[in-house]
Design a protein that fits this description.
The protein is an alpha+beta fold. The protein contains ten helices and five strands. It folds into two domains: 68 residues, Nucleic acid-binding proteins (OB fold (Dihydrolipoamide Acetyltransferase, E2P), Beta Barrel); 140 residues, DNA polymerase, domain 1. A hairpin with a 2-residue loop joins strand 2 and strand 3.
């Protein structure tokens, strides 16, 4: 079982679809083909040595190596594979859309709409993923600016409130990337304390205005 690899990237194919790419890493004269997320690919140097955490995946008649720049990303990938009907392609698509810290926020907020932004994920699949992933994923703890750990699931209305904010931004004509950015900009403390969507919507609009 291969858990990590250190070597030189001698070839890369960043043009593959679905947000991932294939690279060839040579170590001690042996070249290993690895599939990596777009985020991992962009974090790698143009030349020289790289170190990657590796998930060695086995099928009945095949096997494949998946490389990740951080241990959190590999743990998230393996947790995704533990969910019902999630294979490597969908796991890569999810991580290609939401790195581990952002995925932790999506799940903590029960943000159904955010999961629907993942290519190939519809509403029914997103609903199932929200339930399954909370029991299979090991994700980073969300922190406030002062370093305090926070669990957004303390507020049972969080998912509904975030959905209302997302729907309001959609109705105002903002695109999916702008909506996603505004939701991610919300402070975890504000989200946990919110009793309705009105104040959070104002904060999301201010975040969008600041980024304009």
């Amino acid at each position: 079982m291969i858990g990590s690899i250190r070597g030189d990237v001698i070839d890369r194919d960043p043009a593959l679809d679905k947000g991932h790419a294939e690279i060839l890493v040579e170590t001690h004269g042996v070249g290993y083909r690895l599939t990596v997320t777009a985020a991992t690919l962009s974090s790698m140097p143009a030349s020289g040595e790289v170190f990657l955490f590796v998930h060695h995946h086995h099928w009945e008649a095949d096997q494949k190596l998946f490389g990740f720049s951080t241990k959190d990303e590999r743990l998230a990938f393996e947790g995704l594979l533990g969910a019902h009907k999630v294979g490597p392609a969908l796991a890569l698509a999810i991580l290609g859309t939401y790195p581990p810290h952002q995925l932790a926020r999506v799940l903590a907020q029960d943000d159904l709409g955010a999961l629907c932004d993942v290519p190939g994920v519809g509403k029914k699949t997103a609903q199932r993923l929200l339930v399954d992933l909370k029991s299979t994923l090991v994700l980073p703890v969300l922190d406030t600016d002062d370093g305090e750990a926070i669990d957004l699931t303390d507020n049972a209305n969080t998912g509904a409130i975030i959905a209302d904010v997302r729907a309001a931004l959609d109705a105002l004509g903002y695109g999916s990337d702008e909506v996603r950015s505004a939701i991610e900009a919300l402070d975890p403390v504000d989200v946990r304390a919110a009793m309705d969507s009105g104040e959070l919507l104002k904060k999301a609009l201010r975040a969008l205005a600041a980024g304009a």
